[in-house]
Amino acid sequence: MAPVAAASADRTRPDVLDGPFTTRQLLRIDEALMAADSETGLTFSVYVGPLDEPTRQHAERLHDRLPDQASAALIAISPNQRVLEIVTGEQANARLPRQACALAALSMTATFGGGDLTGGIVTGLRMLTDQSRG
Hints:
This protein is an alpha+beta fold. The chain contains 5 helices and 3 strands.
């Protein structure tokens, strides 16, 4: 998984500035991620980019690279492929059942369809946070 912001010696800007988000949008997503982590004790991550086929297996491989996979939840989004995958570790899965993830995914895709990638991510994170607390 590519880092959110990585600068190299031969570049003057972080890689993230070449992505689909403005600085303001990245701050909104980061705030939603921090809130989700602190309110639930789980670790939420978001990947936005291309997914190799089969997309589910690629998302699972990305999840496997996260620290503390058992309590991690990954939202993998490939806008160009129109694909969204939510992968949860064992502990996260106990608090985020398949139905809750499906509901969050449905809400996210509806928002994405309206052209709001950031809003869809933030909404999905909030829904998953609410579910994992309850």
